[in-house]
Amino acid sequence: QVHLVQSGGGSVQAGGSLRLSCEHSGTYTPYCMAWFRLPSGKEREGVAPIATIQRDGTTSYAGFVKGRFTISKDNAKNTLYLQMNGLVPEDTAMYYCAADVTILGCEREEYKFRGQGTQVTVSS
Fold first, then answer.
1. C-beta of residue 117 within 8 angstroms of C-beta of residue 95
2. Is the Cβ–Cβ distance between 21 and 123 less than 8 Å?
3. pLDDT for position 45
4. Rounded to an integer, what distance in angstroms lies between the CA atom of residue 12 and that of residue 15?
5. Segment 52-65 mean pLDDT
6. Is residue 68 over pLDDT 80?
7. Measured between alpha carbons, how far is 56 from 67 in angstroms, rounded to an integer?
8. How far is it, in rounded angstroms, from Cα 100 to Cα 117?
9. Strand, helix or coil for residue 8
10. DSSP character at residue 87
11. Does the structure show a pLDDT above 90 at 119?
12. Taking a C-beta distance cutoff of 8 angstroms, is the pair 42, 110 a contact?
C-alpha cells in the first residue's frame, strides 16, 4: 500500500504561482509518481497525467504545462511537488497526485494510488 496526502493549492490570479505537495508513506517506494488534473465536470477516465517522475528522477510533461510546471521529489521527505508558474484560468482544476509501484512507463492513465485532491483556481 501507498498512502498519499496532498497539501497546497488554493486561489491565485493569472500569472501567479502555486506549489502542490504530496507526501507518501506505506509499504512500498513508488516507481512512478504523477500529477493529474481534473477540470470541473470532466470524468476521471481517460485522463493522462500532466507530469510524471520516475524513481530515477526522469520526468515528463504534457505539452500544455511544459515550461510552466515542474515536478520534483524529495526522497528524504518522501514528498512529491508540483511547482506551477505562469498560471492561467485554464489551469483551474482539481489536482491529484498519484503513485504506482508497477515498473511500466509512467505516462499512463491508470495509477493504483491517488491522493485526496486539491483545488486550484486561477482567476483572470
1. yes
2. no
3. 67
4. 8
5. 96
6. yes
7. 21
8. 16
9. strand
10. -
11. yes
12. no
